[in-house]
Write a structure and sequence with these properties.
- The structure holds two protein chains of two kinds.
- By secondary structure, chain A is of the alpha/beta class.
- Helices cover 32% and strands 23% of the residues of chain A.
- Chain A has ten helices and ten strands.
- Chain A has a six-stranded mixed beta sheet, sandwiched between helices. In chain A, strands 2-1-4-5 form a four-stranded antiparallel beta sheet, with helices on one face.
- In chain A, α6 packs parallel to α7.
- Chain A is globular.
- By secondary structure, chain B is of the alpha/beta class.
- Chain B has a single domain, classed as P-loop containing nucleotide triphosphate hydrolases (Rossmann fold, 3-Layer(aba) Sandwich).
- In chain B, strands 6-7-8-3-9-10 form a six-stranded mixed beta sheet, sandwiched between helices.
- In chain B, a hairpin with a 2-residue loop joins β9 and β10.
- In chain B, α3 crosses α4 and α6 runs parallel beside α7.
- The longest helix of chain B is centred in the C-terminal third of the chain and has 17 residues.
- Chain B is globular, with a radius of gyration of 20 Å.
- Classes of the chains: A alpha/beta, B alpha/beta.
- The interface between A and B is large, with 56 and 53 residues.
Chain lengths: 313, 272
Amino acid sequence: MTATTTAGPLSSATHADYLEGLEPVLTAHDISIDYEVDPPVHAVRHASLTLHRGEILGLAGESGCGKTTLAYGLNRLLKPPAILRSGEVTFHDADGTDVDVVALRDDALRAFRWDKVSMVFQGAMNSLNPVISVRKQLHDVMTTHRPQMTRAARDERSAELLALVGVDPARLDSFAHELSGGMRQRVMIAMALALNPQVMIMDEPTTALDVVVQRGILREIMRLREQFRFAVVFITHDLPMLLEISDRIAVMRAGEIVEIDTAESIYTRAQHPYTRELLTAFPSLTGERGSFVRTGRSDETGPSAGTEKGDAS
Amino acid sequence: MSSLEVRHLVKDFKVRGGKLRAVNDVSFTLEPGRTIAVVGESGSGKSTVARMIAQLETPTSGEILLDGAPVARRGRALAVYRHQVQMVFQDPFASLNPYHTVAHHLERPLKIHGVAKGDALRPAVHGLLERVNLTPAEVYAAKQPHEMSGGQRQRVAIARALAPGARFLVADEPVSMLDVSIRLGVLNLLARLQREENLGVLYITHDLATARHFSDEIIVMYRGDVVERGPSDAVILDPQHDYTKTLLAAAPEPSRHGRLRDEVRAELAAGA
């Protein structure tokens, strides 16, 4: 079952209506990313995405589909052997200027990253530096990007940031190992918020956390989004979760975006067979016993047995 | 009556400055052809229960009984228990040896537990692979772990657990490391074995939805205690304990799409 999508991702008429009048903040056009190994891996193929101001765009797909690679491409974080083969990424700054992200070099790139587009990484449980305090790590962001800030101002902002993400500012002098998984993740979000970015890219930010903790953090992200109007690209394989938090969802498979639509349309009338397959992969919690999210398939081979591939990673 | 029973199981771990009660008085009876799910979050004690049953941890107090007889601490009787009660681990990438073929992984338990030897090994290995739907068996027998997907590896792990002639399987988060589109296939395999081969399955998970669909009974654990138990549908559709309700409210439910956003907006509007 190799759905060819040379015509671009599927989407509905509702989706077109939804897009009316929205202001883009990040546009990616025809992105292709290869891993230059032998043989080369075409990790992302002709992917185009438009992220709008203040919107939560879910990027769904399974391991190896290219979702993280695409996100790294948007933020210019690819490193060899990954290479951006083609495509344009444009950031539409709130002040009206357009930034060609692909052309940014050195200082301009450093100034852009984190300030305009920040990121919460996969495995953020382990992305804090274990040997320096939370305060020092938050200060680092500000000394790099806001050198004019005084120490007192940085302290004040650090405390404010922790309070924003629901962590007691008394924890500023803690080290990563002294924090629970949920608190570490909240600190990572505080760091991503530090410079008031217009876009946050979140790569599986809650995957390793318990559901109750995960819920608290999602709620926090939603609340901060309402307050600060940043846009979010939220990457995860957890489609039920994306359906709950996203305005729109893009479904990726084998490097291609196969379908993009509003969360509601994805749930009620997914068009691409792979999207439907992903939906059937999650049993419904409260639906009829034995029925699965949409189509009620429950044969043993599973919806994807035919495509179970030797992902040797 | 054939059964695997745990009675008043308690496990304390020594921690700095005292002890931590990881499991506090857990009792249940698993019968052949039935599945019991133990659900809870990290630290609830659910994996410790599994590890005690698999004899990987020694209970601080309480009893484990197979067919009514307490499990021996050592010797032949313990080996007999191990033939019949086997474990499937969470991470199929870590639980198979990367240097060995699938055949090797299955031959060892067959030999160690005295199920087959010599010329009988090959057909026994193939039989196991067929039971877990890895066919053609001779192709899979020759593969090494890196040549297979996570779902296929977990099927090998299940075959390995069946090899000694297990009647009870303890599956500790058997699908949480797998891609979503292959999870149901593995769970359906366990369900078929339970149904057709009369296997008793203890399904340890944090996922309430699959617990409901794949088990007859659900036991909810919180910080070592059983806070709620009952038939799966009753626990999920009509939860009694506050913790079960919290867990259920936190689980994503696609039909409630947009709900979280609306709640947050309402809260902010109310606060503003």
